[in-house]
């Protein structure tokens, strides 16, 4: 290169030119008659002029940071608007929304709940009517009458009764109430529970698995002498009718005498004559109570056994003539209130199946008031599996791309799509209820995003190999040409598949379909800008 020539290629635009003298070993002395010359190097500084991008690929190639910042701003604004525009999602009732609507079972469920609300002591439908209320309006209660032979074959619903003052309070702490925790026993050998071994077995299981728990003493209802009340169980009622101190003290003769008493009184119960208003030694009773034998009405034990603790087929009109009637199920009321306070006893003693049975009986059902609490408990435990799935998905992406930065950007893209979908779900679609099942969208959308990410970077590497001398804008354009069509078809078909589930009769499924379909479409729009800008 000659002195004074340009040391760079041909510039597009020269903004400034600077001349610098070449350094010499000794400072030159300039004389008018001297023939020495001073050599200079010519330098230039090139400044790039701002030009509007002519295509989307050129915008991605020249301004990737601005595109990423714009996407982040949109995600942030949608997140704030979605969270501040209404209440935060509440997952305290995860079963909410799974009840069918506009179906036969849904309409029957509404009628059943209305019937439950009107049934009970001093209500419209009651076996223990309020006499004053009944006298003012004879149509507000149902007075049981003798049943015909056809009516005796109908199933009788189990209803709770109000406490009466003339019950035997010396043993039980009042009558069994539906607010108490309940256990259902059945025979292990598929035989009858009406035998001494099965009765003692139920008492032992209750004592060993429930009453021995450290929390039971703090939860149980207590007697006047500050002791835990006995349970309303078959064994304890046999003990009451036989003057025994506990159910484990009962004998075979006690069970035989109790069975004979129940056989004599069951006919009046199934006909609707043996009702709470006829119980006790009082004299102010309805006239229809005169037909009931004294041994059946002098104590509430007979009525409570037939009404609460024994199954409906035991000593029914169809099986009353059996020499040995079969008792399939027996209910036990614990002297503890249903609710979250029973969670410790359930998890420690009743959750393991091997604790619920012995050689004679087993606990086949229970109502501890823990339905919502147990669902939340096991959902919290099972969240480890979706988390493992997410770790596996993004670990696979990281190993395939060999870049933690790109993996992080993919994760942010998934979260951003979900947040934008939440904004549209709340603000655009005005959906106030956000069911727990919507959280499954995180795993599903992550798998969809992983598929799109791997395809995009495969196309990106292919375009680099096919256009080794091409510019960045050309490679971006070639990649987006193929990837855009693929993403558009995949996103629209996947979103349409989820939106189709909106036709379901279950509200939770409809909410999930709306949210997941919106998340897929938001991911489609965000991926077209976010993913190539990150690359």
Model description:
The chain has a 3-stranded antiparallel sheet. The protein has a two-stranded antiparallel sheet with strand order 1-2. The chain folds into 3 domains: 1-47, no CATH class; 56-89 and 383-534, Multidrug efflux transporter AcrB transmembrane fold; 168-371, no CATH class. It has 18 helices and 5 strands. The chain starts with 15 loop residues before the first strand and ends with a helix. The model is unreliable at 1-20, 28-35 and 130-167 (pLDDT under 50). The chain has helices at residues 56-62, 64-84, 104-118, 131-136, 149-152, 196-211, 216-219, 234-241, 252-270, 294-297, 300-309, 343-350, 371-382, 384-401, 404-428, 441-466, 472-500, 507-534; strands at residues 16-21, 40-45, 180-187, 329-337, 361-367. By secondary structure, it is mainly α. This is Protein dispatched homolog 2 isoform X1. It is a multi-pass membrane protein. Its main location: membrane.
């Amino acid at each position: 290169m000659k002195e004074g020539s340009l040391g760079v290629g041909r510039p597009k635009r020269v903004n400034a030119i600077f001349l610098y003298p070449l350094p010499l070993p000794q400072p030159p002395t300039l004389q008018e008659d001297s023939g020495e010359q001073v050599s200079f190097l010519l330098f230039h500084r090139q400044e790039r002029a701002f030009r509007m991008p002519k295509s989307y690929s050129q915008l991605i190639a020249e301004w990737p940071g601005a595109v990423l910042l714009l996407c982040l701003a949109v995600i942030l604004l949608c997140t704030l608007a979605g969270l501040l525009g209404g209440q935060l999602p509440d997952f305290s009732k995860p079963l909410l929304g799974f009840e069918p609507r506009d179906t036969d079972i849904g309409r029957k469920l509404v009628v059943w709940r209305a019937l439950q609300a009107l049934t009970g002591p001093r209500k419209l439908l009651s076996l223990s009517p309020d006499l004053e209320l009944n006298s003012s309006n004879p149509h507000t209660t149902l007075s049981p009458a003798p049943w015909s032979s056809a009516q005796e074959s109908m199933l009788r619903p189990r209803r709770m009764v109000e406490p009466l003052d003339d019950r035997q309070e010396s043993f039980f702490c009042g009558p069994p109430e539906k607010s108490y925790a309940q256990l259902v026993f059945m025979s292990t050998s598929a035989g009858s529970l009406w035998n001494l071994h099965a009765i003692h077995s139920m008492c032992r299981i209750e004592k060993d698995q429930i009453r021995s728990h450290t929390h039971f003493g703090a939860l149980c209802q207590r007697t006047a002498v500050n002791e835990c009340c006995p349970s309303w169980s078959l064994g304890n009622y046999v003990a009451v009718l036989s003057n025994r101190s506990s159910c484990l003290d009962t004998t075979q003769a006690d069970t035989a005498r109790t069975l004979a008493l129940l056989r004599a009184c069951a006919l009046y119960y199934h006909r609707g004559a043996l009702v709470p208003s006829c119980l006790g030694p009082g004299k102010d009773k309805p006239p229809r109570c005169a037909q009931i034998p004294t041994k059946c009405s002098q104590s509430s034990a007979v009525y409570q056994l037939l009404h609460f603790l024994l199954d409906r087929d035991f000593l029914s009109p169809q099986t009353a003539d059996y020499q040995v009637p079969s008792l399939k199920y027996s209910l036990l009321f614990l002297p503890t209130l249903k609710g979250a306070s029973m969670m410790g006893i359930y998890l420690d003693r009743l959750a393991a199946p091997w604790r619920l049975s012995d050689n004679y009986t087993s606990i086949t059902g229970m109502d501890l008031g823990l339905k919502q609490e147990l669902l939340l408990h096991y959902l919290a435990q099972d969240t480890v599996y979706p988390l493992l799935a997410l770790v596996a998905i993004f670990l696979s992406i990281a190993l395939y791309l060999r870049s933690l930065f790109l993996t992080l950007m993919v994760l942010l893209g998934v979260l951003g799509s979900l947040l934008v979908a939440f904004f549209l779900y709340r603000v655009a679609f005005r959906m106030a209820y956000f069911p727990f099942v919507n959280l499954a969208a995180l795993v599903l959308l992550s798998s969809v995003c992983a598929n799109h990410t791997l395809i995009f970077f495969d196309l990106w590497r292919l375009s680099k190999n096919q256009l080794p001398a091409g510019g960045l804008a050309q490679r971006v354009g070639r990649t987006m040409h193929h990837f855009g069509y693929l993403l558009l078809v995949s996103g629209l078909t996947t979103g349409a598949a989820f939106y189709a589930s909106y036709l379901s009769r279950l509200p939770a499924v409809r909410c999930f379909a709306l949210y997941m379909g919106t998340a897929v479409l938001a991911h489609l729009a965000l991926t077209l800008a976010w993913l190539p800008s990150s690359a």
